[in-house]
Amino acid sequence: MSYFIRIFCQSTQDVRRRELQEFILGGIHFDKHPVFIPAFLDPDSMLDNWERVDIIYEQDKRPVWVYRNVGDSLLEGGICEVKI
After folding, report:
1. CA distances from 26 to 22, 37, 73, 84 (A)
2. Tell me: the pLDDT tens digits for 35-46?
3. pLDDT tens-digit series, residues 14-29
4. 38: which of 19, 43, 44, 71 fits an S-S bond (Cβ 3.0–4.6 Å)?
5. Alpha-helical runs (H) found in the chain
6. Which phi and psi (to 5°) does residue 67 adopt?
7. Is 38 among the domain residues?
8. Which residues contact 79 (CB under 8 A, 6 or more apart)?
9. Is residue 1 part of a domain?
10. How far is 69 from 78, CA to CA, in rounded Å?
């Protein structure tokens, strides 16, 4: 079974992949140290305009995919659903 969680942020400040990775590493979100794609030290983790980061937390489980949507039709549709 797959789960989809949408988180809507009101801030216009960009969040880089590395900031998300640091948040995950700083908390107690997984039992073991997760693997990130792109890797934590990869320069792509510092890009402002990114689409996805993969979090591999157990080898025998599906990874967690975090997508970033800014101003696209998926985001607009989600906002309309919440307003109803």
Report:
1. 6, 18, 33, 36
2. 999 999 999 999
3. 889 999 999 888 887 7
4. 44
5. 17-26, 73-83
6. -105, 145
7. yes
8. 8
9. no
10. 11
- More reliable by pLDDT, 43 or 73: 43
Q: Is the C-alpha dihedral spanning 37, 53, 28, 61 positive or negative?
A: negative
Say how far apart CA 15 and CA 24 lie, in whole Å.
13
Contact assessment for residue 41 and residue 15, using Cβ atoms and an 8 Å cutoff: no
Counting the structural domains of the chain, the total is 1
Taking CA atoms, 46 is separated from 38, 67, 73, 78, in Å, by 10, 15, 25, 27
Beta-carbon contacts of 53 under 8 Å, excluding residues fewer than 6 positions away, are: 17, 20, 21, 36, 37, 38, 45, 65, 66
> Is 49 a domain residue?
yes
